Amino acid sequence: MDQSGAIDNLLQEERVFRPLPQLVIEANVNPQELEGARKFAAMDPAGYWEEAADELDWFKKWDQVLDDKDAPFYRWFPGARCNIVYNALDRHIETANKNKLALIWEGEPGDQRKYTYFELYREVNRFANALRSLGVRKGDRVVIYMPPLPETVISMLAAAKIGAVHSVVFAGFSAKALRKRINDAQAKLLITSDGFYRNGRIIGLKETADEALVGACADCVEAMVVVRRCNIGVDMVDGRDFQYEDLVRQERNEAPTEVMDADDPLFLLYTSGTTGTPKGVVHSHGGYMVGVHRTLTTVFDIKPTDIFWCTADPGWVTGHSAGIYGPLMAGTTSVMYEGHPNYPQADRLWSIVAKYGVTIFYTAPTMIRMLMRFGTQYPKQHDLSSLRLLGTVGEPISPEAWIWLYKNIGRSECPVLDTWWQTETGMFMISPLPISVLKPGSVTKALPGVEVDVVDRQGNPVPPGKGGLLVVTQPWPSMMTGLWNDDDRFKEYWSQIPGVYYAGDVARRDEDGYIWIQGRADDVINIAGHRIGSAELEAAFGVHPAVCECAAVGVPDQIKGEAAKAFVMLNEGFEPGDELIKDLKKTIRNELGPVAVIKSIEFRDSLPKTRSGKLMRRVLKAEENGFEIGDLTGLDED
C-alpha cells in the first residue's frame, strides 16, 4: 500500500458490450452529439446548464446561472421564479400529453388504477386545495408516511404545488424512526394510510403513525390525513385526523400553483450518517428540476411511446427523481407497484413488465440478486420483448449480476445502464447512455456537465487502475442546497478533501477513463497492507454459481493484521459444507490472487440490510467483533 492509502484493485473485468446499430441510429443523442455536449459543458458549464434550464418553463428567468460566492452554499438560477409541479403537470395540460397516461398503478392483490396527465392534474389540485383548507402554507413541512400508492404521488405534488416542503418517510420505518423525522422537520401535517398490502398480508400503518405522534412532536403536528387503502378499522382522533377521501370530495378541480424562488426548498429526504442520526437533505425547486430533467431524459433516451418503470419506493431519492418528478417532467408514462416482488411468486415483476409493455426497467442490484436466486424459469414464462433499456441504481452491480440481467431479462439486446448518484446529488452523475460501449460492473463516465475525479486522501488524482476516493470537482444544478438545520454537518461534505465534494465512495478509473465503484470508503479491508474493497471481494464470490449474495467484512488476524470473513447466501440447489468452502476459497484465489485472504466463510439464510436493500456490513462486523451494534434507525440510504 502506498502512503496515499490507495485501494488495491484485484478484480479485472475484460468483457465489453457494444450497442446494437439500430439502437444507435434511433437514439435521441448520438455519439457525436454526446462528445459535443461533453466539450461544451467542460468549456462553459454555466452555458450548458442554462441550455438545460431553457427546456423547462419558468415564471421568471434567472439573474445568473450560478452564484458561488458563498460556497459550498451554491445558489442555482438565483432570481428565477418557478415551481417543479408546473413542469411536472400544469404545462402538459396545454399539450398533446393532456390525455396521455401519466401513471399506471398496480396493487399487490392485483387491483389497478390509471391516471392521464389531466386526471392526475385535477387530483393534485383537489388535494392542494384540501391542504390549504387545513392551514398548510408555503414553507410548512408535510411528512408523508405512505406505501407506493397513487395518493403518495398526489400528496407529494400537492404539497409542492402550494409551496409546502414534503418529506416522504418509507412505510417500513418504525414509529421511533418516524418520530425522529417529524421532530427534526417540525412537520405541521402528517399524511398516512390505514395500511397496505405486502407479501400477502395487510400491514397496518395508522397505528404506527399514532404511536409516532405520542411525545415531543405532538405539538408541531396539527393534523393527520388518512388514506383508505385496505378498508380496515382505525382509530380517528376528533379534530386532528381527517379521511383523505372526505377532504378531496368537496374540493375544486383547479388550484393556483405557488410561485417559488428557484432556491426555495422542495423536499427534505432523510438519509443515514456515520453517527446514526439521520440527515435531512434539502433539495430546492429550480436546480433540482433542471438537473433531474436533463439527466433522466438523456440517460434513458425517453421517447413518446415509452412505459417507464422505476421499482424504487417513493421514500428514497430514486423514487423521487426517477419514479415521480423525472418521468412526469419528461411527459412519459410511469408504472408503480405496491407490493412484494415475489408475491405470489417470483415472476411478479416480469408479469407486470409483460402486462403493461414496459420499455424501460430501472431497479437495484439487490433486486436482481434476489431474483437470480430463483433461476431463469420465471422470466421465461413472460414476454419481455417490449423492453429496450435496463438500468440499475443504489450500489455497485457485480459483473455476474449485470450479465444475468442483460441475458435473461434483456435478451442480450437491451443495454444495462448502471447509474451512480446519491440522495445528496439529486440527479444521475455518472452513467452510460444507450449508445455507450459497456463494461459489466462499470458506471462508465461522468455525464456532460458533471466533473468527477478519483483521488487520494490529499486530493491528488490517482493513476489509472489504482483505487481512490470519488469526488465531484464542480457544482451541479440538482445538488442538495443544505442539511435541514445543520450547516456544520453540510460543510463536512466539502471539508473532507478541501474544495471538492466528497462522495464517500471508493472507485477506480481504468485505462479507458471508465469509473468502477467499489463500495463505501469505510467498507475497506486492510490485508497485510493491501486495502481491498468489500464490494470487490463480494463480486468475486458472485462468480461462483452457488452464491446468491455475499457480504464481506474485515476481522482481526494475528499475522495479516486483518483478514476477510464472508457471509454467504446460497442459491437453490446448493448445500453448505466443507467442500463448498474450499471451492469458494479457490474461486477467490483465482479471481483476486493470494492477497485476498479469506479467514472464514459463514452460510446464512439472510443478510442484514438497510430499508432500501443495501448491505449493513457494520452490523456483521459488530457482531463478529463483539461491538455494540448501535441505533439502526438512521440506516436508510438509497
UniProtKB/TrEMBL annotation:
Main enzyme class: ligase
Cited Pfam families: ACAS_N (PF16177), AMP-binding (PF00501), AMP-binding_C (PF13193)
Residues in AMP-binding enzyme C-terminal domain copies: 536-614
Keyword Glycosyltransferase annotated: no
InterPro entries in the cross-refs: Ac_CoA_lig, ACAS_N, AMP-bd_C, AMP-bd_C_sf, AMP-binding_CS, AMP-dep_synth/lig_dom, ANL_N_sf
EC number(s) reported in the record: 6.2.1.1
SUPFAM superfamilies: Acetyl-CoA synthetase-like
Gene3D superfamilies from the UniProt entry: 3.30.300.30, N-terminal domain of ligase-like
All residue ranges annotated as the AMP-dependent synthetase/ligase domain in the record: 96-484
CDD domains noted in UniProt: ACS
Keywords of the record: Acetylation, ATP-binding, Ligase, Nucleotide-binding
Keyword NADP tagged: no
Molecular function GO terms recorded: acetate-CoA ligase activity
Residues covered by the Acetyl-coenzyme A synthetase N-terminal domain: 39-88
Sequence similarity: Belongs to the ATP-dependent AMP-binding enzyme family.
Protein name: Acetate--CoA ligase
Species this protein is from: Pseudodesulfovibrio methanolicus
